[in-house]
Amino acid sequence: MYTRSMHDAPVVMIEEVGRELEKEGKRVRVLWQENDALTFVARGREYRSEFHVNPSDEIMYMIRGQMNLHIRTPEGDEKIVVVPEGGLNFTPAGMPHSPRFPPEALLLVSERKRRPGEADRFRWYCPECDAFLHEESAEVTDYRSDPVSQAYKRFFDSEEFRTCKECGHVMPAAQNT
């Protein structure tokens, strides 16, 4: 069942949304959040370092700028997929990924709204030795709550979470989380 009227088919001017996000200093604007659809525009986070494990497939379109999409293979190796401006990427559910692009860049993301009981996970690895550092998990019922920023705050507010148990390196706290 639709939460919108069958006659409601809104049009969004994406560049205008991007300008508003920049002016407001925000990172994400949800465009649609319906029964099985979630679409949002995101600005880059210059401090992004975690790998998101999404229970849904994601389709990402680089509106402005270039993204280095860091992924982790099933073997645990980190690879980088370069998505140029105008490029479209499909990231399957369960693939740890970290979309890294500057704040002036814009990304359009379309994915499935979370089902009851599904959790998004955010994982960090040591930048020195690549050992697993920490994982945050959250059931995302409303993407407007910006779960990425919340996970970042919990991680970066804790020196214990940022300290590698293997090599002792302490990941520096991020600014502007």
Automatic annotation (TrEMBL):
Q: What does this protein do?
A: Catalyzes the oxidative ring opening of 3-hydroxyanthranilate to 2-amino-3-carboxymuconate semialdehyde, which spontaneously cyclizes to quinolinate.
The yes or no answer to whether the keyword Lipid metabolism is present is no
Its cofactor is: Fe(2+)
Swiss-Prot/TrEMBL keywords: Dioxygenase, Iron, Metal-binding, Oxidoreductase, Pyridine nucleotide biosynthesis
Q: What's the protein name?
A: 3-hydroxyanthranilate 3,4-dioxygenase
Highest taxon, organism lineage:
Bacteria
Q: Does the keyword Metal-binding apply?
A: yes
Entries under Gene3D superfamilies matching the protein = Jelly Rolls (2.60.120.10)
- Which PANTHER family has this protein been placed in? 3-HYDROXYANTHRANILATE 3,4-DIOXYGENASE (PTHR15497:SF1)
What the entry lists under InterPro entries is as follows: 3hydroanth_dOase, RmlC-like_jellyroll, RmlC_Cupin_sf
Recorded hits in CDD domains, A to Z, give: cupin_HAO (cd06123)
